[in-house]
């Protein structure tokens, strides 16, 4: 920036003329910030808040159906939907821990290979999971149910649990209509198709897979229908897990409305952290927009949990899986198979550049969800900031690696400022009714 071009920048306290932001709403009086943000920075800050309304999900007709959400909430907390009857979605996505589990790697029927991400604001993401192997929340929900390391149940068993529980069945039928009885014919209780590298046929195929093969097409279709309905209901519940309204949001509101008191919601320390976040540290390159994620995949070359070379193909595999799934936005279970999400998944190509890339996580609501990163390999926020500062132990910065991260060599003060800013992204608490199974009397809102 040319010195003298903006003489008022010389003063340590910038008086922001609101007229420089888009669509000024308040009176044109200036408001003071603790840090001299430039006009361009202010414009950028205004784009980082508030969290916009949820993007619609036309692939799920039930996405915003309150009864479906209530049914989905019941399933989310139901441990009967697991092989050993002890694991529900909430076992790993524990509401008390920011919908994570506090572990490095997830632990269901067995230890998994990735860290459990939060579900706060999850409906703002276009691709789900670290590798983006689902393109909708409902498609994602189907996966842990049958994953042998996670819940390890089968879609046949899921139908049985719903059919045998009068309250669940009534809720199911109130939303989706009569349960197709063909789904209960034969012996579907323990039936599911082969997953991953499993053998689909012959004596070596897992029993559940053999049971699936023994069903007729009508039975399989009826079971899949219930399975997908369950996914769509769980998705409707997860769409309610929104948390904005953080101190940072009040600060931005203050800039917009010219309200000094609201601007004061962000401490001078956190304001300096924000300047760093957008400036020299350039976190905003990837953690952009009001959910602090560009929705894209990057390779941060993190040290691996147990040392050694990175082995997780990340987005390279995720893209293949989502494109090949019958449950993606373009498939026959989608309620919008020709819409924009369908187009996106049809256009996906598997590219070697994507090897080792993971989706940029949101930075909202970080306070109760350590450890961090796709293997939970960084134990707290201080270690995350330390990593970005020094890139110590960075691995595999070979030909696949985007050369975007540079050693920042942050000072002690800068680290403190950056943490203060991140802490100010903690939203207000969500309705307590969403954090436990729905009670019979009070619907989950
Ligand atoms: C054993 C622990 C475990 C269980 C049980 C579990 N999850 Fe997860 N969840 C994970 C892990 C680990 C990931 C990341 C997966 C990956 O990237 O490979 C994840 C990812 C997700 C995501 C994607 C979040 C994002 O930011 O993209 C959603 C949504 C989700 N789970 C919902 C559910 C639902 C719904 C259930 C129950 C049907 C469930 N999970 C059961 C551990 C679990
Ligand atoms: C090149 C894009 C990029 C830049 C620049 C970047 N990040 Fe990230 N960030 C990511 C990705 C991708 C992950 C997940 C990486 C993984 O697990 O392998 C991540 C993870 C994180 C996490 C962990 C969140 C969680 O849920 O586990 C935090 C906190 C974080 N970044 C903060 C920052 C800060 C602060 C900066 C600036 C100093 C920054 N990031 C710069 C892409 C980026």
Please tell me about this protein's structure.
There is one protein chain. The chain has 445 residues and is an all-alpha fold. Among the domains are: 81 residues, no CATH class; 177 residues, Cytochrome Bc1 Complex, Chain D, domain 2 (Orthogonal Bundle), CATH 1.10.760.10. Helices cover 33% and strands 2% of the residues. The chain has 15 helices and four strands. The protein has a two-stranded antiparallel sheet. The longest helix is centred in the middle third of the chain and has 22 residues. It is globular, with a radius of gyration of 24 Å. 42% of the residues are buried. Bound molecules: heme C (2 copies).
List the helices and strands and how they pair.
Blueprint: E1 15-16, E2 31-32, H1 39-46, H2 66-76, H3 89-92, H4 137-146, H5 155-164, H6 166-176, H7 207-214, H8 217-238, H9 247-257, H10 260-263, H11 268-278, E3 297-298, H12 315-324, H13 340-346, E4 358-359, H14 381-390, H15 412-423
Antiparallel strand pairs: 1-2, 3-4
Helix pairs in contact: 2-6, 2-8, 4-8, 5-6, 5-8, 11-15
The structure holds heme C (HEC) (2 copies).
Briefly characterize the structure.
The protein has 445 residues and is an all-alpha fold. 33% of the residues lie in helices and 2% in strands.
The bound ligands are: heme C
Report the β-strand fraction as a percent range.
under 5%
- The fourth-level CATH homologous superfamily of the domain at 66-242 is Cytochrome c-like domain
Going by helix content, strand content and strand pairing, the class is mainly alpha
* Top CATH class of the domain at 66-242: Mainly Alpha
């Amino acid at each position: 920036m040319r010195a003298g071009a903006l003489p008022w920048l010389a003063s340590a306290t910038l008086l922001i003329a609101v007229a420089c932001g888009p669509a000024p709403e308040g009176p044109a009086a200036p408001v003071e910030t603790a840090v001299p943000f430039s006009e361009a920075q202010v414009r950028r800050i205004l784009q980082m808040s508030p969290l916009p309304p949820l993007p619609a999900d036309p692939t799920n007709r039930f996405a915003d159906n309150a009864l479906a959400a209530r049914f989905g909430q019941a399933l989310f907390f139901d441990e009967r939907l697991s092989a050993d009857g002890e694991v529900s979605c909430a076992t790993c996505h524990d509401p008390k821990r920011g919908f994570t589990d506090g572990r490095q790697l997830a632990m269901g029927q067995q230890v998994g290979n990735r860290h459990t991400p939060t579900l706060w604001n999850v409906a703002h993401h276009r691709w789900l999971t670290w590798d983006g192997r689902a393109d909708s929340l409902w498609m994602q929900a189907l996966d842990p149910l049958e994953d042998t390391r996670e819940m390890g149940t089968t879609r046949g068993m899921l139908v049985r649990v719903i059919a045998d529980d009068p309250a669940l069945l009534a809720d199911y039928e109130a939303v989706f209509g009569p349960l197709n009885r063909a789904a209960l014919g034969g012996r579907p209780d323990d039936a599911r198709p082969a997953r991953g590298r499993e053998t689909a046929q012959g004596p070596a195929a897992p029993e559940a897979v053999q049971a699936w093969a023994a069903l007729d097409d009508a039975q399989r279709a009826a079971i899949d229908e219930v399975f997908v309905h369950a996914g769509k209901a769980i998705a409707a519940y997860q769409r309610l897990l929104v948390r904005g309204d953080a101190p940072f949001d009040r600060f931005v509101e203050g800039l917009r409305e010219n309200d000094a008191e609201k601007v004061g919601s962000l401490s001078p320390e956190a304001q300096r952290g924000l300047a760093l976040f957008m400036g020299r540290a350039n976190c905003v390159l990837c953690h952009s927009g009001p959910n602090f994620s560009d929705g894209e995949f990057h390779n941060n070359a993190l040290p691996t949990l147990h040392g050694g070379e990175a082995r997780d193909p990340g987005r390279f595999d995720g893209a293949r899986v989502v494109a090949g799934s019958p449950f993606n936005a373009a498939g026959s279970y989608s309620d919008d198979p020709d819409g924009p999400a369908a187009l996106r998944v049809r256009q996906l190509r598997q590219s070697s550049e994507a090897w080792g890339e993971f989706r940029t996580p949101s930075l909202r609501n970080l306070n109760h969800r350590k450890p961090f990163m796709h293997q939970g390999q960084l134990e707290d926020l201080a270690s995350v900031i330390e990593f970005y500062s020094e890139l110590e132990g960075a691995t595999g910065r070979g030909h696949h690696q985007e050369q975007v991260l540079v050693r920042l060599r942050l000072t002690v003060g800068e680290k403190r400022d950056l943490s203060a800013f991140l802490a100010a992204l903690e939203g207000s608490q969500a309705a307590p009714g969403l954090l436990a199974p729905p009670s019979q009397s009070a619907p989950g809102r």
